[in-house]
FAD-binding domain-containing protein (Cystobacter ferrugineus), 403 residues
Amino acid sequence: MSAAHVLSQHFERVLLVDRDGQDVAHERQGVPQVDHLHVLMRRGWLAFNELFQGIGEELIRAGAAEVDWGTNCYWVGRFGAFPRPPSDITSRLCSRRLLEKTVRARLASNPRIELVEHFEAETFRWDSSRSRLLAVKARDGRDLEASLFVDASGRNGPFRSKAVLEKVDARASYATCVVRIPHAERLPFRQAYVQVCAPHHLRGGGINPIEDGFHLAMMVGAGHEMPPGDKEGFLDYARSLRDPCVAQVLSEAEFVGPIRCFRRMAGTRVLRPAFQADNLVTVGDALCALNPVYGQGMTVSLLSALELGRQLAQEGRTSQKRFNELVAGPWLTAAGEDLRVPGCTLENVSVRERLTMRFNSILGDRVMLRATFDPDAHQRAMRVLHMVDPPSALLPLALPRVG
Ligand SMILES: Cc1cc2nc3c(=O)[nH]c(=O)nc-3n(C[C@H](O)[C@H](O)[C@H](O)COP(=O)(O)OP(=O)(O)OC[C@H]3O[C@@H](n4cnc5c(N)ncnc54)[C@H](O)[C@@H]3O)c2cc1C
């Protein structure tokens, strides 16, 4: 959707095709993760506001909760709870459905964007030289012609099954439920998170505010750990975490609605695409679906939309290369952590990449150790986790101090 918005600044007519209908209140087959926690990293929040002016205020009016990831967040990392000084790493939390609804309303009022619902893209039609695409074809036989195609069809998009993918599968899984917490304002934090830290701690969980005074409770598992989908099992799982913060909150919470599970969360990245053409770019999860535990996916998609706008404004054309570069860092970070999970399986990941991931993990541990005991190091680590600063900003924290 953010790519369509950007395209409308450069083209008179943009067709936004979706296999689902517009009504985000209902089941989303194309976005099965819609009911799970979707935090927007600080960089993503900034990009979101840059792309859609005033949308931050709109979300606040709709009830999105403000969070300072320093002082409001009780986060138990690998070496214990992080310090909680006030920080400039702030963003808003709300449900994924509210995010989508707000963006869709913007797109619906954009006269250059035409929403084509229930169009399940299946393949493309080529020109005679097979270097340019002419049309996208739907499963039901319809086809739509265009001069430029942006594939943002997500982690289950139709063209991925024909592509060669790199895959890192730590068998991560979620169970999520909307809860109401009595007197949430009296809690010593706004959000709490007990992180999965492989290889020893394969269970994690958290509690996060969303709109309308509700919270999303989530349990996370990796490797052989899989959070259950029934209430008793969910509460038992929360009690088994290495910090009691989430279980204590949940003991008083009212469970609203069903517990939803998500099991297919392997990280996958397109190594060789099914289609390559001068007028096709692949972005977002369609290009690189990260293990969502690291909360980077939407931020990467929003940054890709900004990059698309930059390419069209400055170069008048698109190039896949820069989108590939954009996902490289988040991919290494997420896959590097996944690699530590016992039984994690890899497909098509080069030896060089594996070594880089392992090396990053070692440096990452040094950073997290310092961030646990040093508020300044914590602030710097948060800026990188939230993709505000590049990972290189952490090197001084990761390298041994001399003298
Ligand atoms: C359980 C879970 C939790 C997550 N939590 C977070 C989080 O906390 N923070 C975060 O930043 N990210 C999170 N993510 C990742 C986030 O959901 C994605 O990174 C983000 O939605 C990617 O956006 P996208 O536009 O590339 O794809 P999507 O948002 O998946 O959108 C794809 C679109 O393509 C449509 N589509 C699919 N197939 C077709 C077809 N054949 N024809 C036409 N249309 C089609 C779909 O209907 C959908 O509208 C999570 C993911 C999962 C699985």
Summary: The pocket of flavin-adenine dinucleotide is lined by residues 17-20, 30-31, 33, 36-39, 119-121, 152-154, 157-158, 174, 262, 265, 284-286, 292, 295-299, 301 (CB under 6 Å). The domain at 173-262 is CATH 3.30.70 (Alpha-Beta Plaits).
